[in-house]
Amino acid sequence: MLEHLPRNAVLIADRAYDSKAFRDALAEREITACIPSSRTRKIPIPHDERLYRKRNAVERFFARLKDFRRIAMRYDRCPNSFFAAVIIAAITIAFL
Hints:
Strand content: 5-15%
Number of strands: 2
Largest sheet: 2 strands, parallel
Distance between the termini: 33 Å
Low-confidence stretches: none
Helix content: 40-55%
Number of helices: 4
Mean pLDDT: 89
Radius of gyration: 17 Å
């Protein structure tokens, strides 16, 4: 998953991804991690609160995308048809 991310990028993730191994893998690829520390961590690692709030907009978008039954159930077998349905649903979400 990490090999597709560009260098000097910022990865915003939730607490489930707060592990030393994952953070080390991000540091090797020079990717900045915006991950809140898990509650079990004795010394919390700081993160950018303002940047982390933007993750919520992405989560809400995917939740609304799943409201479209055609996409949630993946009726289209052809990848191009499925991608077209996702694009149409995204445009509908953006302009409603």
